[in-house]
């Protein structure tokens, strides 16, 4: 009985998400046929100047979708006394906004007033994964941009200290499953983290352990030397996936070896279902890619805004 009710609720949630939503693959076929080429080129150009761009764009899209749906609220600037999402606490390492600005201005030159910033960001995230050696996929389009962005709402983002039940809750509130959680966490195959995001694991972990015992000791020692408690360099940190900078499945191998960075990565081993998925993705990059693409399309379909912004940083 309990199961039936839970299943019913998730069916209702999923359909609520898909009803509001009329995304389609050929949305700009007549109104802006070159949009995908233009965005891909802008992402490629930005990346050739700065190798940190792909990771930034992927994370930016995730943050966008988790707050008010994928509505480009993450791109809005603070205005007057309204502090926007990008100036909220977990904005650490959000960057590469200029890459989206450039893509948008080139898209506007070719088809003014037609393509939403939310769609540009969804396309850019896909292009970022592909440019990093990962899979590609067709992105459904037709998102609208929102008119609200509040720094205070960024506390709704999952924190790196979250345990498995907190992660599950954060994802299920957005219609995303445990499989989506494990697959999308694979985004951590790219990018950089500051010490503040994982220092809970290497200093004063709890009253009996200074260091999280699930970390491999030599790896923990390395993290401690990068992130000393005192006189730490200002932007100290490390790549999230220790072994590579390409979009691959080494993130899952690292988790199994006690070399994940965040408590939220390690937590994926704490239920049999999520643990099995970590093992599956660690063994099969193909299975990871397939699941990641499927979950990205799901996450990037979370509904948002109302308008097509002219400038991604300000509402019309
Ligand atoms: C499951 C919940 C998640 C948590 C708790 C989480 C947490 C974090 C944290 C703390 C950082 C480092 C920030 C810093 O210190 O600079 C980070 C970086 C990153 N995250 Fe996540 N994340 C989650 C899910 C995701 C998802 C779903 C994606 C994309 C599919 C993603 C992609 C990234 C990327 C690419 C970076 C590197 C950013 C850069 O180098 O600029 N994360 N994440
Ligand atoms: C993050 O927030 C801080 C403090 O509110 C702000 O100074 C900084 O510019 C923000 N970072 C980005 C990338 O917008
Ligand atoms: C996860 O954290 C929450 C909040 O701190 C706590 O109430 C809950 O018991 C924890 N769950 C697990 C499985 O550790
Ligand atoms: C500290 O964490 C370890 C590993 O998770 C656990 O075994 C131990 O019981 C914890 N100690 C306290 C006091 O919570």
TrEMBL record:
Q: What does this protein do?
A: Removal of H(2)O(2), oxidation of toxic reductants, biosynthesis and degradation of lignin, suberization, auxin catabolism, response to environmental stresses such as wounding, pathogen attack and oxidative stress. These functions might be dependent on each isozyme/isoform in each plant tissue.
Cofactor: bound how, per the entry note? Binds 2 calcium ions per subunit.
Q: Which ranges carry the Plant heme peroxidase family profile domain?
A: 22-316
Tell me which InterPro entries the record gives: Haem_peroxidase, Haem_peroxidase_sf, Peroxidase_pln, Peroxidases_heam-ligand_BS, Secretory_peroxidase
Q: Where does Ca(2+) 2 bind?
A: 189, 241, 244, 248
**UniProt-recorded name of the protein:** Peroxidase
EC number(s) in its UniProt entry?
1.11.1.7
Superkingdom of source: Eukaryota
List localization entries. Answer: Secreted
Instruction: Give the cofactors, semicolon-separated.
Output: Ca(2+); heme b
One of its GO biological process terms is:
hydrogen peroxide catabolic process
Site location (Transition state stabilizer): 59
| SS bond partners | 32-111, 65-70, 117-312, 195-227
**What are this entry's molecular-function GO terms?**
heme binding; lactoperoxidase activity; metal ion binding
Which positions carry the signal peptide feature in this UniProt record? 1-22
Q: Where is the active site?
A: 63
Locate the residues binding Ca(2+) 1. Answer: 64, 69, 71, 73, 85
């Amino acid at each position: 009985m309990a199961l039936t009710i839970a299943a019913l609720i998730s069916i209702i949630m999923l359909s609520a998400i898909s009803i509001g939503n009329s995304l389609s693959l050929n949305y700009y076929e007549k109104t802006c046929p070159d949009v995908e080429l233009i965005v891909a080129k802008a992402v490629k150009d930005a990346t050739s100047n700065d190798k940190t761009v792909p990771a930034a764009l992927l994370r930016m899209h995730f943050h966008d979708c988790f707050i008010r749906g994928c509505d480009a609220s993450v791109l809005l600037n603070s205005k007057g006394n309204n502090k926007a999402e990008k100036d909220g606490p977990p904005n650490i390492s959000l960057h590469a906004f200029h890459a989206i600005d450039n893509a948008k201005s080139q898209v506007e030159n070719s088809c003014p007033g037609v393509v939403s910033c939310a769609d540009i960001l969804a396309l850019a995230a896909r292009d970022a994964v592909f440019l990093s050696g990962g899979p590609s996929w067709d992105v459904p389009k037709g998102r609208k941009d929102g008119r609200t962005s509040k720094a205070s709402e960024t506390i709704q983002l999952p924190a790196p200290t979250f345990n498995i039940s907190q992660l599950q809750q954060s994802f299920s509130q957005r219609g995303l499953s445990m499989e989506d959680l494990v697959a999308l966490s694979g985004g951590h195959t790219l990018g950089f983290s500051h010490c503040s995001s994982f220092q809970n694991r290497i200093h004063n972990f709890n009253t009996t352990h200074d260091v999280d015992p699930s970390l491999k000791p030599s790896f923990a020692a390395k993290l401690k030397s990068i992130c000393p408690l005192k006189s730490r360099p200002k932007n100290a940190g490390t790549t999230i996936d220790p072994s590579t900078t390409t979009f691959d499945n080494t993130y899952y191998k690292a988790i199994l070896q006690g070399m994940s960075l965040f408590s939220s990565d390690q937590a994926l081993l704490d239920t049999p279902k999520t643990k099995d998925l970590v093992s599956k993705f660690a063994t099969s990059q193909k299975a990871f890619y397939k699941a990641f693409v499927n979950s990205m399309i799901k996450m990037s379909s979370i509904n948002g805004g109302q308008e097509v912004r002219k400038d991604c940083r300000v509402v019309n």
